[in-house]
Amino acid sequence: MKVVSNAFADNAPMPDKYAFQIPDPKEHATMGPNISPHLKWSDAPAGTKSFVLLCVDVDVPTVFDNFNVEGTTMSKDMPRQSLMHQVLVDIPPTITELPEGAESEGVVPKGKPIGKTPFGVRGANGYTGFMADNPDMAGNYGGYDGPAPPWNDELPHRYEFRVYALDIPSLGLSGPFTGEQALEKMQGHILAEAKITGTYALNPALR
């Protein structure tokens, strides 16, 4: 199985168009267009009954003491963890492509709706927890929400768009379920998987 996009090449930088935050010369960063990128997958194995799409930032710092703090940097060698930027399950086997903007057409304060869509069932992405302490932004974030790495991070972040082919039509999940819960439900049902990776940085030294 393979995944491609007309938005960016594998292991290449993602354009600002697809980012939750973009560079700003005065404030370091500001809200971006946050458009979901085009994705297309092919060569799914026989017996595929549904797909799952996860977008995962695999380079999120585990310690946030210096997160966007003026005059500091976040070392490229510090420990890292993953954060989900998109959780879409129960994608019918007849759907093998998402057009640009299908899962996001901009930043939506308090989040885009979770639940059933024309392309599958949305779970809650990692912004649900990330924005929880911001009264103007807190909510359940469905759909796609793009890159917003720390502007003082020495490491460009990698965003993996992972597609899984499953031997079941539904994971049976509802409500604000997480990508981690989807991964748990998928165990034993994955026929194949593939990914395309885009990179993004707000640190001017890395752009």
- Average per-residue pLDDT, rounded, comes to 97
Oligomer: single chain
The H/E string reads EEEEEEEEEEHEHE
What Rg is obtained from the alpha carbons, in whole angstroms?
Answer: 17 Å
The 3D shape can be described as globular
Helix content: under 10%
* Terminal-residue CA separation: 31 Å
Q: Using DSSP, what is the number of strands?
A: 12
SS-derived structural category: mainly beta
Strand content: 25-35%
- Domain tally: 1
**CATH superfamily assignment?**
PEBP-like
How are strands sequenced across the largest beta sheet? 2-12-11-6-7-10-9
Which CATH class?
Answer: Alpha Beta
Account of the 3D structure:
- By secondary structure, this protein is mostly beta strands.
- 6% of the residues lie in helices and 34% in strands.
- It has helices at residues 127-130, 179-186; strands at residues 2-4, 12-13, 21-24, 28-31, 39-42, 50-61, 80-91, 97-98, 115-117, 120-122, 157-166, 190-200.
- The strands form three sheets. Strands 2-12-11-6-7-10-9 form a seven-stranded mixed β-sheet. A three-stranded antiparallel β-sheet has the order 1-5-8, with no helix packed on it. It has a two-stranded antiparallel sheet with strand order 3-4.
- The protein starts with a strand and ends in a 7-residue tail after the last strand.
Topology record:
Layout: E1 2-4, E2 12-13, E3 21-24, E4 28-31, E5 39-42, E6 50-61, E7 80-91, E8 97-98, E9 115-117, E10 120-122, H1 127-130, E11 157-166, H2 179-186, E12 190-200
Parallel strand pairs: 2-12
Antiparallel strand pairs: 1-5, 3-4, 5-8, 6-7, 6-11, 7-10, 9-10, 11-12
